[in-house]
Amino acid sequence: MNKELSYLAIGDSYTIGEAVEQVESFPYQLVELLRKKGVRVANTKVIAKTGWTTDELALAIEQENISQTFDLVTLLIGVNNQYRGYSAENYRIEFKQLLHSAIAFANEKSNNVYVLAIPDWAYTNFAKKSDRDLSKISQEIDAFNEINCYETAMCGATYIDITPISRRANQDVSLIALDELHPSGKMYAEWAKLLAEQIIRA
């Protein structure tokens, strides 16, 4: 492949890699994996910030006023909607809008859009030390993921279910960063591997 692919990653703390070095975040690890496979990828453009909900991400995208399109787009958003107690119905509406934005950024090629499931933070020490109902967190994450999985399929984009990986943090604390909440570089590496496999296959 001679063409250098352009890549846009949009999301929240899970996309920027809160609590780890930038090179350990999944977008940057993904680019390195693709390069090792002979797929040339330009520097990644990231629109993401810790704490963002769907509406905040949508506003940020609007303010970026991006006119270019990209060969590869990843979208991961929703955990802060769940954390703040926003409804699943509201999430569906705003997630669909973001997904359509992602597809537009991919020049209307939905097969170049990859949606990652929301990780389950109930399995972190941060959650265990909080006064939250851990089973309720997981149930709500599952409900949100049912929505984003369905909407992704309806649009013809690719869904990457990384939630099971996040739930292994109970047995393997090395999957969580030092802040006891966000993924470590080790977990992000597993996400990047799943993504790279799908992209290479496509």
Topology at a glance:
Layout: E1 7-11, H1 13-16, H2 26-36, E2 45-48, H3 54-64, E3 72-76, H4 79-83, H5 88-105, E4 113-116, H6 125-129, H7 134-155, E5 158-160, H8 163-166, H9 185-201
Parallel strand pairs: 1-2, 1-3, 3-4, 4-5
Notes on the protein architecture:
This protein is an alpha/beta fold and 202 residues long. It contains 9 helices and 5 strands. It starts with 6 loop residues before the first strand and ends with a helix. 42% of the residues are buried.
For this entry, give a set of tags.
single chain; 202 residues; alpha/beta; 5-stranded parallel beta sheet
Task: Give the class from helix and strand content and strand pairing.
Answer: alpha/beta
Question: What gross morphology would you assign?
Answer: globular
Mean of pLDDT: 97
The side-by-side strand order for the widest beta sheet comes to: 2-1-3-4-5
Termini gap: 13 Å
- Fraction in beta strands: 5-15%
The helix/strand order is EHHEHEHHEHHEHH
Separate helix tally: 9
Largest sheet: 5 strands, parallel
Summarize the structure.
Helices cover 48% and strands 10% of the residues. The protein has helices at 13-16, 26-36, 54-64, 79-83, 88-105, 125-129, 134-155, 163-166, 185-201; strands at 7-11, 45-48, 72-76, 113-116, 158-160.
